[in-house]
């Protein structure tokens, strides 16, 4: 879609340039109306108005295109996958009797919160613990690129609306599960970052006073070694000072700051896909 807009914009600009060239010779010979001297040439007021209107039209069209593209890229997709949690849960239990789909969903929500908050805090240690190598590398590079611009991306006040398990695949080596989560949160790029300490922001607005609450849809792709065994997803304990974590969304010890290793049951987050525009996901249930 972006390419189509670029082609249309290019056509308009070429047309405008061609029109200006075709009338320029005759425009300089106009005797009617006010005349202005520009670079030794006598230029008609009508020609200046024509050029001005053309420039305004191109700029307006460009802004419209940018807004449309930006909206399509950030607005959540209308697609909502089918929920196959019951049949997928039964399939996983054939190999792992301790698996519980509701506990897995709670774990998935905590994982998303921990990842997004770690991106906000630029906490690479948490990301490396939770994510697979490729996803961790992508997030690390994104953080470094924003740091270079004295910016950072903020995710906060995350609230969930819906959760589903639309896809599962099992082969001889690995299990793959997709978890769909939708909700609402604050998300924006903060451009006021000038030191390692985060600025204090209003709960509902960014540093320039703009409302930044948005709706979201994510697909979290988890994978683990086939025939792994599950234990209850419980808050962990700090290996440094022994402090007990109160919840799954507390990846660092509140007492000493060390990383708390919560039970993961072998699951690793390898992909995090934001469903925007016309994006869809596989929701066939069990992939045979």
Explain briefly what this protein structure is.
Helix content is 38%, strand content 23%. The chain is an alpha+beta fold and 288 residues long.
Label this structure with key terms.
single chain; five-stranded mixed sheet; alpha+beta; two-stranded antiparallel ribbon; globular; 6 helices; 288 residues
Mean pLDDT rating: 80
Through-space gap between termini: 34 Å
How many strand elements? 7
- Poorly predicted runs are 22-31, 63-72, 194-209
Please summarize the sheet with the most strands: 5 strands, mixed
N-to-C series of helices and strands: HEEHHHHHEEEEE
Strand content: 15-25%
Spatial strand arrangement across the major sheet: 6-5-4-3-7
The helicity comes to: 25-40%
Radius of gyration from the CA trace? 27 Å
- State the secondary-structure class: alpha+beta
Helical segment count = 6
What does this structure look like?
The chain has helices at 2-27, 45-74, 85-93, 101-121, 124-130, 133-148; strands at 35-38, 41-44, 152-170, 174-190, 213-225, 268-274, 285-287. The model is unreliable at 22-31, 63-72 and 194-209 (pLDDT under 50). The protein contains 6 helices and 7 strands; from the N terminus they run H-E-E-H-H-H-H-H-E-E-E-E-E. Helix content is 38%, strand content 23%. The protein is globular and about 85 Å long. With 288 residues, the chain is α+β, with helices and mostly antiparallel strands. The two termini are 34 Å apart.
